[in-house]
Amino acid sequence: MKRCVFGLLVLLMVVAVFAEDEKESGLTPVGGLTFADEFELTVVNVMAHVTDKKGNLVTDLTKDDFRIFQDRQEKEISNFQLYTEAVYEQYAATSAKLPPGMPLPESTIELQPVNMVVYIDHDNIHPLDRNRVLRNVREFVAENLRPPMQMMVVESTLGNLKILQSFTSNSREVRDSLRGMTSRAGGRPERDSARQGVLERMQYEIENYGRASGLAVRGTRSYKEMMTYAEEEAHNVMFSIDRLREVVTFLAGMPGRKSVLYISNGLPMVPGLDLFNAFADAYNDPTILTETQRFDRSSAFKSVIAAANSQNVSFYTIGAGGLEVVGMSANEYRGNRGPLVSSLGTETYVESLRYMARGTGGLAITKTNDFDAGLKRIEDDLYTYYSLGYPLVQTGRDKVHHIKVTLPGHPELVIRFRRSFVEKSLETRVQDRTLAGLLHDLDENPMDLECVTGMATPAANDLWMVPMAVSFPIERIALLPEGEYYVGRVVIFASTRDSDGKRSEMVSQESEIRLPASIYQQVRDSRFDIDLSLLMEAGSYRVAIGLMDQITRQASYQTITTVISSR
Hints:
The structure is a single chain. The chain is of the alpha+beta class. The protein folds into three domains: about 120 residues, no CATH class; about 270 residues, von Willebrand factor, type A domain (Rossmann fold, 3-Layer(aba) Sandwich), CATH 3.40.50; about 130 residues, Immunoglobulins (Immunoglobulin-like, Sandwich). About 30% of the residues lie in helices and about 35% in strands. The strands form six sheets. Strands 1, 2, 5, 8, 15 and 17 form a six-stranded antiparallel β-sheet that branches. The chain has a six-stranded mixed β-sheet with strand order 11-10-9-12-13-14, with helices on both faces. Helix 3 packs antiparallel against helix 4, helix 5 runs antiparallel to helix 6 and helix 6 runs parallel beside helix 8. The protein is globular. The relative contact order is 0.14.
């Protein structure tokens, strides 16, 4: 029984028979491998969080209390388990007493690893707000970081995403990395200053020139500055979403629960929305609001939610501004609609945090200064939940399924769950697992895959061509007869990550293995070599390689490091 995790904690259980002794099994070997029938059963595990109306955890429900639907069709719940923080605490206490390297004793409850990326977005946070929140986050780390939980720390500064601490269960290492970022600067204060400048320009024009009307409104300096601000803010939002998507890929292929703790002052779903409302109010021109449509970035937020759901990643978001108004305050524009415009300015930033959390089954901590209480809710979320499993008939391709969980007999309770998951093809799962190799070593190598890089040679535009040899024993690959030949096919996936955390796009190469049947027995113990070429900049890299046999659907992984010098 082999188990791997994909999609929404989808457990793929494969039962296969491979004859160790061909004579006793009576099965005929083909290309060095012996085949038998394979039975594949997929179980989808949905995590459900249940609370009462006051937010208190509810942990006394049974399987019969739940109903689960996939794509509007009810499914029979075949697996049911309640996980609590006490179970995880017992696990941590047991692991702490064991000598290093000693495996934990088997438990009746299988605990999933808990993987969290702590992401501080300096480009979209005020330094004072950040430092205030980080004090609470460090306490959260000290209280919660223990096996089977591990954390990673990343930050964005001036558009660059950097890994400060790779995945670890060492609380001190994570807290030190968080403590070291309190002096970072970002672009948010400057953008807020530009926004304030537009408001002041608007008020200055009204006080000194009166209210323009008609087409003349579009000729005002405040209109031009407002449009420039909205365009620049929209550009920043797209960059920020790309970085969020990149953080999600850090968790690709990793087993267990996966989440991103995203800390910022928020991102506007419609950049400049508060300014457009202020302009409409100031010049009594509601038609200006139609121009907000060109800056609407809701679809981009939907895409990052889809990316997170495809990797089974939940967003836990913290609005670092707390109760402070992010948009305009009432006295920034002296008009009878000032408070309304002010609330719009606030909501356009924090609503994106709620939207990402809600869309991925996570939690948003916004418009509060009690961050300890918010982090306690996240702690409860990570360790206390119901696991509901049901069988899935696989399609063999990437497909989005919609989920609904209900408690028909308990209208007084609140249930929260991820509302979709992605059924993944084997190719996609191998790619995800390869990406995981960029962050930690993978020990899945049944095909004895080996990778070696050669000497880099200069290419165009400060790039270098790096040759790579990928090899594996011929007898580990399935070869089927085609006339006078044995033929097999493999696919190689490769990706790289530099020392700053920048990742390359995944590349793939399909290769055919064709051998004369007459020489197979002579060469079956030999290794088969496939040459690759990677185009890279100078620097230090971690390279992850995945190899998939298209016949047996078996996969192997290997990671190596290489340094490219510009000299």
